[in-house]
Amino acid sequence: MKITKQLTIKIIGIAVVLAATFALGYGVGSKSAKPSVDPVNTLTSTDMEHAFGSVKPADHPVSMKESAASTQEPAVMSLGGLVAGLEKKVASNPENIDQQLLLAQTYSELDERAKSIKLLRALNKQAPKNAQVKITFATILMKSENKQELKEASQLFEDAIKLKPEAASMARMYQGEIRVKLEGTSK
């Protein structure tokens, strides 16, 4: 039951993060794209209720087991839908770096690290002078235990500092964490 509760909380948390990510991506993308109405990608309250399930009133108590069972399937289905929607937005506007960063972060949160890294590698080549791309890429790489990825992350932070000096304190802190990991893997 404890594992089910933790899994339910994690799934709901990921769904909320993805919903926020999608909403932010939509808002960011709409600033740089021509305004248009796309009925296929517009979420309504009915869509959200279908994706996340409806909330039962407080006078109808629900057991944790029933709650987990009713929440898991719609949440998982909705995550795929949100990712697919974000992927469509990125595909329709490949110049929008912010949306691509959101997609890469979403992939990482969903344990699709390979997709995240592939997208960030391409984005880093596309926008070599973008400090945010370098920082995002480095923070995902630094979760690894692989020495090469850790060294690459440290170098990306160094490059980001040159492009955006005000990020130096944060980047140096992360580089310190990377050094500790590298020292721990060499023993």
Q: In a nutshell, what does this entry contain?
A:
By secondary structure, the protein is mostly helical.
Explain what you see:
The chain is mostly helical and 187 residues long. It has a domain at 1-95. Helix content is 76%, strand content 0%. The protein contains eight helices and no strands. Helix 4 (97-109) runs antiparallel to helix 5 (113-126), helix 6 (131-141) runs antiparallel to helix 7 (147-163) and helix 7 runs antiparallel to helix 8 (168-186). The longest helix has 31 residues, at 2-32. It is globular, with a radius of gyration of 19 Å. Residues 28-73 have low confidence and may be disordered.
Find the count of extended strands (DSSP E, 2+ residues): 0
Low-confidence stretches: 28-73
Globally, the shape reads globular
Rounded to the nearest angstrom, the radius of gyration is 19 Å
Portion in strands: under 5%
